[in-house]
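Lab channel / #folding
Pinned by the channel admin:
"Please post every new chain as: sequence first, then the structure tokens as a reply. Keep commentary short and put observations after the output so the thread stays searchable."

First post following the new format, from NK:
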Amino acid sequence: MLKIGLYIHFPFCVRKCRYCDFASYDNIQYLMPKYLEALKSDIKRWGALTGEVSVQTIFMGGGTPTFYKYRQLIDVLETCQKYWNIDGKAEITLEANPGTLDFEGLKNLRHTGFNRISIGMQAWQQHHLRYLGRIHSSKDVVESVKWCREAGFDNINLDVMFGLSNQTIKEWNETLEKAVDLDVEHISTYSLKVEEGTPFYTMLNQGQLNLPSEDTERQMYHLAIEYLKSQGYIHYEISNFSKPGKQCRHNLIYWHNNEYIGVGSGAHSYWNGKRFANVSDPKDYIEKIQKNENPVQFIETVNREDEMFETIMLGLRLTEGIDKNEFFMRFGKKIEVLYKDVISKLKYEGLLIEDEKAIKLTERGMDVQNLVLLSFME
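Reply from TO:
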């Protein structure tokens, strides 16, 4: 039976962060009830379309899924359980913002089957949280983790960000220390990317952002690697660290370029040799589902050559690299033969390491990953 992941998108936010370019919105709460019904209808539709598959992971992201009431989130999970074959040991993740959680609701979520919580901490210092547009305080983060533990969650992730405007090395180090002090199983470290269409993009063009230099940003990244590894976390993907056995199984589906279904406005899927994305406007999504129309806005067929490149592109994000035997089993070709000249060149430049089992980036290669991928593309 084919094993897949399932992503469910909730596009609503209490307040949209200044850096966010995801398909998420504030001030459209009036659509939330109708969107929930459309979401459940789409889950049912996809359950029939996919047939006999085994769902290994469910990830409810956003936006802010916990902007909804807990009973509504449980209703969505129960809809998945009704129309899909959910593996008994499936990883079921819920993204949450501190300030939208409470203990009683978390207990109900855990009892229903949610077993992983991903909390957007982002920074420890209140002035950075304010500048990012977050609605919570560092106290809320501590309280949220405490409630999750008491509710029975033994798999908690914290998202943290570096490369912020006016952020110092000392502040970044403090954020990492506070995250570790909370003894969570997983920490995701993301460098701020100023994306077009965000308030930060406008502020940058107006000279209102004082971003760190590239050297300082890289120093922050390597500080995170060194410190988190010293605290017992495994650096298993460019931006992600976990305690042993607590890697994010849902994201590993993406990084191994395996199949997944995305449900909801703006959600992406990789299924049956095609990549496609739903309309990003929640109102358009609701209307299409209500009319029994396909909400897909974009679709492309992935040919064999593109699939090989994407498998390399995503696999090199993992510190364990690309398993040479898995690549051969999937494509019937040896990666070390197919890309012999490229691999030799990158090894000579100190950007790749190759052993009997895998091909992976060096520490320096991780810093210039885009150049490595460009070599494979050429």
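NK: The first strand starts at residue 2 and ends at 10.
TO: also worth noting, Residues 32-50 form the longest helix (19 residues).
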